[in-house]
Design goal:
Number of domains: 1
Shape: elongated
Order of helices and strands: HHHHHHHHHHHHH
Strand content: under 5%
Largest sheet: none
Structural class: mainly alpha
CATH class: Mainly Alpha
CATH architecture: Orthogonal Bundle
Number of strands: 0
CATH superfamily: MetI-like
Length: 285
Amino acid sequence: MFAVFRDLIRYNIEFAIGVTLVGIILIFAALSYFAPVDQTLIYVTIPDQPPSWQYWFGTNSRGQDLFWQLSTAFRNSLMFGVTVAVLSRIISLTVGLTSGYMGGWVDRGLMFINDIFVAVPIFPVLVLFYFVLRNNMDSMTLALIMACFGWPFDARLIRSVALGLKHREFSRHAVFAGMSTPKILLEEHLPYVMPIVFSTFMANMLWSIGLEVTLAVLGFTNINQPTIGTVLYWANSHSAMVVGVWWWIVIPVILIVMTFIGLFLLAVSMNEYIDPRSRLRRMGA
C-alpha cells in the first residue's frame, strides 16, 4: 500500500495536488475539536465582523465565528460523505461479487434489483423522505438513505470484473480445494476489485457531499446542524451578499471548491492507476 502511495505521489501530479488539497481540508476540519464554544449556539460574538486577526474568517449575521463554524461544518460534511461512501461500497461489493460469481438466477435477480435502483430519481425521493421524516431527518438518517441509492452503478462495474475472475485458474483451484463461496469472494476475488473500490469511494464522496449541499441550501435537511450546505443556507437566508457580508459566501465557496477539486483529482488519479498502460506511461516505461 505504501509503495502504491509513493508511486502516485512521485509520478502523478494530479494525485499530489489532490492529496495536498484534501489534506488541508482535513486539518481544517480536525481543528473543530478545539472550538471554544458549541457551534450550534448563536450570537456568541459580534455579528457581521469582516475578516481580521481576531476573526480570521469574520463573523456572520447570527453572531458566529465563521472560522470555527466552517471547521465544524466541514467535519460534519466529510464524516457524512465517508459514511455514505463506506455503506454504499459494502452494498456494491456484496451485490457485485455475488452476482458475478454465482451467475444464473442469482445474477439475474440481483441485476434486476440493481436496474430498479438505477432508474429511481434520487433527488425527488430524498425530498419525499424529508417531508415524511421531517422531525427525524438528521445527518445519519440522510446518510443511510443516500447509501441505499449510491451503490448500483459501482455494483455493475464490480460484477463485470467478477465475471472474469470466476473463470480464472486460481478460482477453480479454490473450488477444488473445498473453499466456500463467501471465502472465495473475500480471500480470492476481493483484492482484485479493491482498486475500483478506492477510486469509486472518492467519486461517491463527491456525489454525496454535493447532494447534501444541494438539499441543505434548499432547506431539506436539519438546518440547525452545521454542514457546508447549512452554512450557505443561512447565508442566503440573511441575504449575505446584498447586505455586504461577502465573506459569509466567498470563503465557504472557496473551501468547497478546494474540497471538490481535491476529491476529483484523487478519483481520477486512482482510475488512471488501475489501468496498467496509463500507469506505465506515467512512469516513463
